[in-house]
Amino acid sequence: MSQILLNTLKEDLDPSLVQILDTDTQLSGITEKYLLDLLINDDLLSTDIYTTTSSNSQENSSDKKRTLTEEIAELDQQHRQIDLKLASITNSNRDLIIDISEDLNSINDQIDSKLIAEIEHMLKTLKLEEVEQDAEKSKANSESMDKFNITINERLTNSIKTNNSVLSNIDSILDILEIPTLCKLCILQGNYQESLEIFMLSQTLVIRFPKLVVFRKIHDQVDRELQLMVRGLIKLLNTNLKQNNILKIFQILNKPDLINYNTSSSSDMSREEKISQKDRFLKMIYLNSRFNFITNELANLKPIIKFNKLTYLKRFIEIYREYIFNSLSIYHAIFNSKSVLVEAQQKEEEDSILISQFIKNLADLLCKELDLYLPEIINPSSTDEDINIEKVSQKDGIILQILYLCRSLAKYNVDFENILAWNLCYKDPTPLVSESDWNKNISKIKKVRLD
């Protein structure tokens, strides 16, 4: 009997266990013995009495056997108690349960509706090409929308081409944008001719591409740098420059559109008149700058007055002789070498007026200094004859120095001598220098030249 039960149970076992039972006779014997013990146990197989020990009976320290029916009845009672407890809990929280149920149903509906819509949208997106291929659906779409899409595509294509062109020429574009900086660098390094070439390049770009705002802005920035350069060059003319440097500066200042000298009526002028006006403006700049330079040099002599007024006046006249002659020489070198489209007579009159004003201002300044310090030097002393002779010699020395200054400037046909003679000998009732002293020293100069 146990062998039959074992064979029956082996059908549900794992194949590896079945194999062990078949090969191991000892294990098979033990298994059959165990099954046989189960078969002959009447209490275990009895359906009339079911023995159990409840927790209540353990607490009362008494064992009581119960039938299976009683056990099932007790379990049913416990089940009913649990159901009643759950019903009570549910009843006390029914509002919360209803709200949660409604929220869940609403969320469920929304998820269902949106999910379906999203799925449909995704399907439409995935099948867009198939829909476009369908002739009936493509006719339903407006032709204007199709044209609009084409226009957008063309615009996008053009934008891509433009961006590609910019990227491929980025080095050249950066070079153009750096033109103002390059111009400023050339000016700082003294390369003024190169800065003018950069200015001409910016003008060319504006003329060639008049609708491009970036080129106009570049030209404006370069123009501002050149205006700063012009102001710096004009200030530089107030210093002690060599003739070659002054000529170079005026070559730069003479460039077209570099100096704003136009007046309100300049638009009605002819080309010759504009050239003449610009030429006059440059002459005034030159003479004014040289006047400022000479007066600055004279101002440096002021400390000498405290120690020796005679030395101060002699050095004053030496500066005049050196720098006035040099200034007039450079003036004629600059403006007589230029081809100005005006008549020679008009040009000579203009030069004469400007130079005469320049000379007159300097002569007045010299006369003012002589009025201040010469009387103290040349006034005779009634007590010491030797001192009087020395003062006469000093006066003659000053007059001779002035006359040599005037004769050096006679080459340029200026009235420097006449202005000084009038102010020193004839202007006041009590002149600084008598006419006889002036003529005496003129005779000395003529005698020296004859010898």
Strand content: under 5%
Shape descriptor reads: rod-shaped
Order of helices and strands: HHHHHHHHHHHHHHHHHHHHH
Regions with little confidence, pLDDT below 50 for 5+ residues:
49-63, 147-152
Task: Work out the number of β strands.
Answer: 0
Over the alpha carbons, how many angstroms does the gyration radius reach? 61 Å
Mean pLDDT: 78
Tags for this entry?
single chain, 451 residues, mainly alpha, 21 helices
Please provide a brief summary of the model.
The protein has 451 residues and is an all-alpha fold.
How does this structure look, described?
Among the domains are: 2-45; 178-268, no CATH class; 317-450, no CATH class. The protein has helices at 2-10, 15-23, 25-39, 42-45, 55-59, 68-92, 94-126, 128-133, 135-140, 143-168, 170-177, 179-188, 192-208, 213-236, 243-253, 271-299, 309-335, 344-378, 385-409, 416-426, 435-450. It starts with a helix and ends with a helix. Residues 49-63 and 147-152 have low confidence and may be disordered. It is rod-shaped. Helix 17 runs antiparallel to helix 18, helix 17 packs parallel to helix 19 and helix 19 (385-409) packs across helix 21. The protein has 451 residues and is an all-alpha fold. It is built from 21 helices and no strands.
